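Q: I'm writing up a methods section and want to include an example of the input and output format. Could you take the sequence below and give the corresponding predicted structure tokens, formatted cleanly so I can copy it straight into the document?
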Amino acid sequence: LILGIDYISKNLKRMGFGKKTGIDLPNERKGIIPNKKWKKTRYKQSWFIGETLNASIGQGYMIVTPLQVAVNTALLASGKKPTPLIVKKIGKQIIKPKISDILTPQEKKLLPLIQKGMWQVCNSLGGTATKHLDIPFEIAGKTGTAQVHSIPQDIKKRKREDELAYWKRSHAWLTTYGPYKNPQFVVTVMIEHGGHGGSSAGGIVSKIYKKLVELQYIKIKG
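A: Here is the clean output for your methods example:
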């Protein structure tokens, strides 16, 4: 509430949301990062202060793609924002990835605090992904549950996700990077109507990291 939606929107766009990532594939969507002007243009309505709270946790009008979340996770892991590429080489021409240094000195100073929090999500006793992961090295990440069906205000006790009809269940998110101390890969999983991020996506994330080890993309010392 102190920051306000326009400040939040401006900085989320600077960090890659609300715009295309630049991947070398067609039909990429840019999503929606709302602000006061956007709502006035789209709906001819003023922005309500409660909508700032919804936006701050990724709800309300906000729409992001798994690819945007993956790029932002790479930014949090390394301090630099990459442009994702599929093509490595065209003929003899090597296609080099573009890496953008977009964080302010103050943001870089605070980055270790965010990284520690993401480590705790996947490793600490109370982490929302910890008990759902089975990986032979430490990773860091963030779980998410994106509500897709509104809850009437007169509902006093909400049903569990598994009690809801499939199309009313929340989308489950888990975005990660690893290994934690030497980040090499980002693994982002979104399961439509999957419920809770950690419990639904943890197994898939674990299998991907294990396959990266099996194929020797990630080498474990010792």
